[in-house]
Every structure is written in C-alpha cells, then in structure tokens.
Amino acid sequence: MNQVEAFNQYRSKMNEKILAADNKVIKRLFNLDTNTFAAGSVDVKTKEMIGLACSMVLRCDDCVKYHLEKCKEAGVEEAEIYEVFSIANIIGGTIVIPHLRRAVEYWEALKTAGS
Model pTM greater than 0.70? Predict the structure, then answer.
C-alpha cells in the first residue's frame, strides 16, 4: 500500500469510528468543515489552496496531506502548489520548512498515484 492509500484508509476508518459515536458537536464540526470548503463566492480550487497554506502555517501534516489531495482533485497545477508553499513559508517562517519537505514528498506521492 502506498503513502496516499495508507493515509486515506486510516482517515476513513477513524472518521467512521468518530462519527459512529454520534456526538452532535463533532458531527456539526465535520459538517461545518465540509460546507466551508464547498463552492460559494470563492471557488473550491482557491479555498483548497487557502486551506493548504493555513494547514502548513499551523503545522498540521494530516491537514496538509488532505488539502494537497483536494488541491490535486481541484486541478491545482504544480507551479500553483509551489506558490502556496512559498506563501505558507513566508507567513509561518522557517519553522514551516519541515512541513514543506513532507508536503513536497506527499505531492510527489499524489502525482505517482494519479499516473
């Protein structure tokens, strides 16, 4: 199993367990997240790039992976991804560099998985 499959399998399995607990607050939080990234006045592609930059600045590797995959699905090109990486590193500072490395690694895995 490759890196992309492993991440998605784990994420799905754990989301099912979490949602099965039937906690109203958690369900509403998940729903709010889904609706936030749906098309609206701002298109999905732009929202996912914003989500990626914010996730990098907040240093959440799982969120970075998630938004990288959504960016790929939304048609974000590699040059655009690297601009988002640049913005995140300028805003977040050099502490974001380790997350940049892992983001580049996952982006490469996504490109391979899509071949």
Answer: yes
